[in-house]
Amino acid sequence: MSLDHNTRILIVGLGLMGGSYARALTDAGYAVSALDTNEKSISFALREGIIQNGGTAPTKDFVGNADLVIFALYPHIFIEWLRQYQHLLRPGAILTDVTGVKALPLREIGKFLRPDVEFIAAHPMAGREVYGVENSTAAIFQGANFIVVPTKENTPAAVSLCRELGKTLGFARVSELSPEEHDEMIGFVSQLTHCIAVALMTCKDNQHLVDYTGDSFRDLTRIARINDAMWSELFLDNKEALLREMDLFIGEMQTLREALNADDRETLREKMRLSTARRALFDKK
Amino acid sequence: MSLDHNTRILIVGLGLMGGSYARALTDAGYAVSALDTNEKSISFALREGIIQNGGTAPTKDFVGNADLVIFALYPHIFIEWLRQYQHLLRPGAILTDVTGVKALPLREIGKFLRPDVEFIAAHPMAGREVYGVENSTAAIFQGANFIVVPTKENTPAAVSLCRELGKTLGFARVSELSPEEHDEMIGFVSQLTHCIAVALMTCKDNQHLVDYTGDSFRDLTRIARINDAMWSELFLDNKEALLREMDLFIGEMQTLREALNADDRETLREKMRLSTARRALFDKK
Fold first, then answer.
1. B74 near B230, Cβ under 8 Å?
2. Measured between beta carbons, which residues in chain B are less than 8 angstroms from residue A249?
């Protein structure tokens, strides 16, 4: 199976991400259906013309009709949905997701998934700090990364279909990582940075410093305003990888602390020079 | 003494900050002289008309003529300069500085300063990521904080003169902190944040992640390009305060780590809610 205009696409979960997928795929000429337990989200999407069909309950007709099913749900809801309703899927259906962690859902789903359907994991690295289909827009995919996360069980056809999906959605770059590489990467560049921002805000009462904060402090804490339900779940679902990244970072902070405590100027300068050289690479992108 | 157009101002150290002071004070109608060991900096400033007189060596005529002497040097060079050349100062001269740490220079200078001159410490919280008088501009003071850091030995007249200086330079806000309050504040909002940015870049080889970094990682590491000579000195000169801030932050990271390790979702969510509430205060400014 390859992605063409005969592919019948079903999106399960019509929030910000599901809605943005629906918009991009409808704009690209596909027939998109959607399921969401919130009736308002479905009627909004139908009214806006970003889906052709919508429903609030999984039925054989609705689910069994889809060639490609995209799950845009929190990880645990996604896993539970599959457990309950996978019998409704048509044989040969390809399933994909938008989940920000990979090892855990792959492990869980691997325990029970029907052998006649195939799940190919993906992580669209895009988002907004607002929620709901009402705020959805395909513009968030511009300039962003789409990561396909295959396992040894995946077929080349499913991997290729998922890569086409990323391109069709409008992502600037489509790449592949293993589940372990993905979770390490996301633990480091996203989850660890959110941990740090939170710890900077909570490590002491800092309200009396608000008049003195410059750009540095504001930059490091911009992401400290955080959806606690979603981020605690993401942290816990990527626990092993995030613990490793936290330990690396805490260990490095302790190294800097010991160098300072010992008046070891040369170690401090070496770290600063390494930091400066590495950061320069990130500016070129 | 109060700041008026008869006040003869000498700036010692004509780099980015000294040059920016010179521009702002010349624009405000003051007669500004400058000393710098680099002849090119002096001739550039004379050619640009941002100083009236300039020299490369401290002489009795040059130094003894000034009512207000502004030191825009690294802390240790500032202290050494005073030790060697304070005999050239005129009786009654007021001295101030731009140094980013306060307890250490105040302690050192207090040991030997002539009793017939007065040092009032100040910290202009402004800067650019480039160096030298060639890059100086008074625009960096707009919207920024000017902090006067008096001790019990300072006279009200010197404190008031220094506050006037901050306003004349164009700072948005002029405030006062004790040396200890200042060093705690700067240890937290500036030095700790630079430590964190450096540790994020050096805690592991992250070059393979450059394609996947989004805004969060870039925001947290923007300041990881760092002048290692200057920042290692600032860290060491504020060692006690910075160690306290690092310990608070490292301890909080460990608290988050233990909550994650124990699957303690509620502690994670509580920290995230506190972080979100506190950060909202910083957005209002």
1. yes
2. 199-200, 203, 253
CB-based contact, B259 to chain A, within 8 Å: no
Contacts of B273 in chain A (CB under 8 A): 228
Tokens linked to B177:
């902190």
Mean pLDDT of B120-146: 91
Average pLDDT, chain B: 94
Nearest to residue A187, comparing CAs of B260, B135, B2?
Answer: B260
CATH 3.40.50.720 in chain B: give the residue spans: 9-177
Chain B contact for A222 (CB, 8 A cutoff): yes
Residue B206 pLDDT exceeds 60:
yes
Q: What is the pLDDT of residue B195?
A: 97
Closest residue of chain A to B227, computed from CA coordinates: A272
Distances (CA, A) of B28 to B18, B45, B50, B143, B168: 15, 16, 11, 18, 7
- Mind telling me how many Å the CA of B99 is from chain A's nearest CA? 16
Report the complex ipTM.
0.86
Burial (0-12, 13-18, 19+ Cβ within 10 Å), B34: buried
Report strand pairing: A121-125 vs A145-149: antiparallel
Note the CATH number of domain A9-177: 3.40.50.720
Q: Give the model confidence (pLDDT) of A132-170 as tens digits.
A: 999 999 999 998 999 999 999 999 999 999 999 999 999
Q: Give yes or no for residue A1 having a pLDDT over 80.
A: no
Is residue A217 less than 8 Å (CB to CB) from chain B?
yes
CA separation for the pair B28, B31 (Å, rounded): 9
Domain A182-284, classified CATH 1.10.3660.10, yes or no: yes
Task: Residue window 5-34, chain A: list those with CB within 8 Å of chain B.
Answer: none
Strand order in the sheet with B9-12: B53-55, B32-35, B9-12, B68-71, B94-97, B118-119
Q: Find all residues with CB under 8 Å of B281, minimum gap 6, and list them.
A: A207, A210
Cite the residue boundaries of each domain of chain A with CATH code 1.10.3660.10: 182-284
Angle at A11 between CA A5 and CA A16, to 5 degrees: 115
